């Protein structure tokens, strides 16, 4: 039975809640963290937001959950970081850690002797994953991306961890879920390979957020927490139960230029269908993107600017 939760300078007795900044070792950064140490025993759930700092729906959801949830309704412990990429947030970058330009969700498990991003990832692993039973990572489309809501779950882990991760994903009220086969790089991927079941939720994008999206996002997180018995109450039978999308193609831009997408997120596409074109500044077509197989569009870049080697569009087959 856990009596006191302690993460670096923050310690929280059973039945209490604390919010404060936790310094990242060997950096000038401090992360805003809330720990809700429930009155009753249960599992510890880590909820991270803003690993990609322009994904505001996830960040605002974590901020509101941290403010609203109380120790008397929590069985176990909730740890929320809101947001993780604090320097990116305060410099309004898109995804990148301000100091090194790196995508934090490609750096796990991190490196204490690396750049600032590497150090943040290492710190999340050593200080937070070490105390985590389940992991929920809140994302959205980036500032230049639009998407249909969906959820990733850990797929490169033990059978039990994969099964529990999928069960978490199925509690999310979205049409699609994607099993991830990566074991490092992303925070939840690496957590999975450490034996922590986890999901990454995608809802919102284009550096916007709305009360409607936050309402839906909070309902999703609470439903997972009820299924893990960390919150009391019956698990909602959502309007949508996500179905697996498989063979996801992350189409890469071959050139830098102007991007003219032909489809919208959530749209079904047929093999050979035009997905969009890249043109130069004079209207000359530089590249044509066509669907390699039937599927559904999960997300795509929505900015006019497309940069070589960026993911243009992601789509996959709806499993039957
Ligand atoms: Zn993200």
How does this model look, in words?
Keywords: Hydrolase, Metal-binding, Zinc. Its cofactor is Zn(2+). 21% of the residues lie in helices and 35% in strands. By secondary structure, the protein is of the alpha+beta class. The strands form 3 sheets. Strands 3, 4, 5, 6, 7, 8, 9, 10, 11, 12, 14, 17 and 19 form a 13-stranded mixed sheet that branches. It has a 4-stranded antiparallel sheet with strand order 16-15-13-18, with no helix packed on it. α4 (159-169) links the parallel β9 and β10 (176-180). α1 crosses α6. The longest helix is centred in the C-terminal third of the chain and has 17 residues, at 211-227. The radius of gyration is 20 Å and the shape is globular. It binds zinc ion.
């Amino acid at each position: 039975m856990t009596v006191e939760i302690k993460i670096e300078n923050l310690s929280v007795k059973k039945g209490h809640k604390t919010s404060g900044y936790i310094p990242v070792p060997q950096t000038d950064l401090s992360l805003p963290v809330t720990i809700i140490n429930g009155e009753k025993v249960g599992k510890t759930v880590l909820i991270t937001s803003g690993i990609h700092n322009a994904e505001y729906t996830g960040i605002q959801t974590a901020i509101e959950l941290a403010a609203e949830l109380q120790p008397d309704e929590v069985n176990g412990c909730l740890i929320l970081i809101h947001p993780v990429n604090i320097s990116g947030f305060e410099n309004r970058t898109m995804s990148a850690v301000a100091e090194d330009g790196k995508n934090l969700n490609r750096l796990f498990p991190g490196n204490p002797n690396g750049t600032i991003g590497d150090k943040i990832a290492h710190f999340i692993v050593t200080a937070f994953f070490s105390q985590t039973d389940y992991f929920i990572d809140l994302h959205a489309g980036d500032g230049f991306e639009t998407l249909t809501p969906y959820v990733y779950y850990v797929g490169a882990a033990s059978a039990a961890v994969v099964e529990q991760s999928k069960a978490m994903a199925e509690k999310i009220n979205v049409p699609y879920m994607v099993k991830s086969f990566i074991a490092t790089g992303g925070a939840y991927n690496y957590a999975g390979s450490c034996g922590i079941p986890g999901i990454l939720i995608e809802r919102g994008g284009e550096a916007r957020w709305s009360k409607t999206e936050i309402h839906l996002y909070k309902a999703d997180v609470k439903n997972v927490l009820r299924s893990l018995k960390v919150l009391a109450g019956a698990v909602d039978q959502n309007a949508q139960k996500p179905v697996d999308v498989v063979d996801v193609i992350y189409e890469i831009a071959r050139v830098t230029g102007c991007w003219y997408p032909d489809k919208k997120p959530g749209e079904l596409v047929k093999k050979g269908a035009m997905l969009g074109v890249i043109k130069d500044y004079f209207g000359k077509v530089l590249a044509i993107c066509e669907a390699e197989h039937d599927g559904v569009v999960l997300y795509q870049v929505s900015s006019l600017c497309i940069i070589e080697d960026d993911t243009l569009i992601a789509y996959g087959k709806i499993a039957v």
